[in-house]
């Protein structure tokens, strides 16, 4: 199933369960807070471990791809990096996403007083961890093939238009554009 649809189904199911939980009971609220903080700590700990595994493997395989510019196709950027640096950059993005989520939840819970999102985000944190491609590669030992092949497909709102291009023709064209700019 598509991860976005999967996330929606889990969120809706969690909302139905959360409706039946009495968040007015202070003891229940403490347990939900503990579950949320524990989940976020586990997620950050796993990402830290994955980063350590990446550094330990020290894969210096060269990775070349073209990062497309959605607005102007001629301004696509050629990226030359190593698998190690690419993976560390991706882990950094995952960690920043966790911190942003924690900041949003702190605002929603502490300032606005919402409690149900704590429960839902505790579940979604684990789901996000399971879906992380770097966790699949470096922790679960899956080979970097298919959907796990680097550079990872964005799978965002723009779909294939925002996915990195790895074919030889796109890389050669980007190298030619760089050569023309240097002249």
Describe this structure in words.
The N and C termini lie far apart (49 Å). The model has no long low-confidence stretch (mean pLDDT 84). α2 (26-57) packs antiparallel against α3 and α3 packs antiparallel against α4 (116-131). Strands 1-2 form a two-stranded antiparallel sheet. It is elongated and about 65 Å long. The chain has helices at residues 3-19, 26-57, 83-111, 116-131, 133-138, 168-182; strands at 62-67, 77-82. It contains six helices and two strands, in the order ααββαααα. It has 183 residues and is mainly alpha-helical. The longest helix has 32 residues, at 26-57.
Features:
183 residues; mainly alpha
Brief summary of the model shown:
By secondary structure, the protein is mainly alpha-helical. Helices cover 63% and strands 7% of the residues.
Task: Spell out the blueprint of helices and strands.
Blueprint: H1 3-19, H2 26-57, E1 62-67, E2 77-82, H3 83-111, H4 116-131, H5 133-138, H6 168-182
Antiparallel strand pairs: 1-2
